[in-house]
Each structure stands twice: as C-alpha cells, then as structure tokens.
Amino acid sequence: MFKKILVPIDGGEPSNAAIRAACAFARETGVRLIFYYAKPGYCPAYVSGEMVMGDFGIDQAFTSAMDKQAKALLAKAAETASEAGVACETLSTECDAPYEGIIAAAEDQACDLIFMASHGRRGVSALLLGSETQRVLTHGKIPVLIYR
Predict the structure, then answer these.
(1) I need a surface site. Which of 50, 99, 105, 137 has the fewest CB within 10 A?
(2) Alpha helices, DSSP H only, in 30-131?
(3) Is the dihedral of CA 10, 12, 31, 72 positive or negative?
(4) Are 144 and 113 in contact, with CB atoms under 8 Å apart?
C-alpha cells in the first residue's frame, strides 16, 4: 500500500518515539522511510528603517549550528532505522514554518504517507503554541498517521 513515508523529526521525546514506531511499521510493511528535519530560517536581529541589519558572523554561526543539529538528529534517526533493518534516507531544508517544509518535502519526495508525532498539547497551551501536526493535517493533501 505505502512505498515511501516521510517521518518529520525534531529531537524531542515524542519525535524519538515516533521514529521507533515508524521503524517498526516500516519493518512490518517493507516501506522506505525518509526522515526529515525542518531547519529554522535565520531572521536578522533588527530592522533599521527600510533595511534589515544583520551581522554576517552571527548569520554564518546560526546557519552552521542549524546544519550541525540537523545532521546529528538525522544521523541518529538513520542509525535507529539501520538497527531495525529498515531502508531510509534523510532530508533537511530551511523553512520559516515547519509544517510548510514537511508538506513540501512529502510532495517533492512523492511520499504516500506522513508519519509524525503529536506532542499532545491541550487547552491553552495548544491554543498559544499551536501544533505543527495540526497544521500538516489542515494544509496537506497527503495522508498523515499521528503517533502519540
């Protein structure tokens, strides 16, 4: 039924649990996993008039730190898949809104399913913090399996 599944990760425990569950699911069904990390975009520190002011050194340091974090998280996910005997790829892109990156990656990679964690926020925290999972469900056209 499914051939390629996108698994968005963020390094949190719900995400790590979803990685393990996705690997178990993939092992049972023989699908290929694509682990995806949405790197946050850099926003310069301040705006002056019509110009955006930034410090090139800080810009580079931020980008380098995000690249390093993405590689570490994706390598850990790939290691989990390897230990489970599951074929996988890793992918990371820079995006301002993670849900947009997740949807775009799933579409670009021709995925049949998005397998993602839910942090389970409820009430005011859900209202204030929002939910990337909810946004993927609302804006995406690809089926989503939510792991809680």
Answers:
(1) 50
(2) 56-84, 98-108, 123-129
(3) positive
(4) yes
Pairing of strands 4-8, 113-117: parallel
H or E, element range at 145: strand 144-147
Distance CA 75, CA 61 (A): 21
At residue 116 the predicted structure's pLDDT band, cuts being 50, 70 and 90, is very high
Phi/psi of residue 10, each to 5°? -140, 0
Residues 77 and 85: their CA atoms lie apart, in Å, by 12
pLDDT in tens, 38-52: 998 776 655 555 555
DSSP H helix total and E strand total for the chain: 5, 7
Whole-number Å distance between alpha carbons of 72 and 62: 15
User: What amino acid occupies position 60?
Assistant: Q
Measuring CA to CA, how many Å separate 112 from each of 12, 33, 45, 142, 145?
24, 11, 39, 7, 11
Euclidean distance between CA atoms 124 and 46, whole angstroms? 30
Instruction: Provide the β-strand partners of residue 116.
Output: 146
